[in-house]
Amino acid sequence: MDFKREKEQDAECEKITAVLLKSRTGEFDLESILFLKLRGLGVHELGCIGECVNLERLDLSGNNVTNLGPLASLRLLSVLNLSANRISNIEPLRSCENLQNLNLAGNVISSTESLHCLVSLKKLENIRLRDNTYNYSNPVCRSASYRAVVLEMFPNIKVLDGERVVGRGSELYQLCKDIDETIKAGSYKNGQLIEHPDCKPWVEEGYWEIKRSNNAIIEEAYKQFNDVLHECRLLNNRASHVISQTERSMSLKKQPKQYAI
């Protein structure tokens, strides 16, 4: 009964208390808490969360938070999820100097000016204000220039709204996006791709062919790898056979005995 009562209290707690934090983490000291997940608890006030000064990862998504004041003391915080709340002012996050990953999708941030307080966070590389997977957004995202303004404001970020801006994978993502836009623009006519005589292949002929090395060591390693792979397949077949036999024998043992009268 006590466990059930505690669970009901966690389901809807308006204010974060030391008792709640200790019960959720198992820590006796708030300063010992490094990771904290308080998703969907109906939290309105952050209470004493600012006392978790060594906190590195915090998930407050799916609550009713409006005031981020207590987060100003969390200078070691690197990952913060505030999605699906009622936040319009993120000024207190200015002090979170180690912040790298910030999710603000599904709030009420109305303008890019509200984001200026984050410019001083030099380690910030991932910002999310919109999440199409959960249909989360912010009023600021409705602006046609939203993406361009944010990228200009934060020239060092690598990911915006889940889309890689720079770094590994960004070129491929942009290429796929360009292909989609080209298709939408009507590159297909009667189900056929319109050919352009001036188009050139992306790679040289023979690019995808596997080139075998003349190095004897590599050749021997390649042969040994194939031998080991073959043995693994044989062992897998034997194991499957033994498992099927065992399952068959166990099913026979479980069958009820029948007696003829």
From TrEMBL:
It comes from the Eukaryota. PROSITE patterns: LRR. Keywords: Leucine-rich repeat, Repeat. GO terms for cellular component: cytoplasm. The keyword Nucleotidyltransferase does not apply. InterPro entries: Leu-rich_rpt, LRR_dom_sf. PANTHER family: LEUCINE RICH REPEAT PROTEIN (PTHR18849), LEUCINE-RICH REPEAT-CONTAINING PROTEIN 61 (PTHR18849:SF8). Pfam families: LRR_9. This is Leucine-rich repeat-containing protein 61. The keyword Repeat applies. GO terms for biological process: outer dynein arm assembly. The gene is LRRC61.
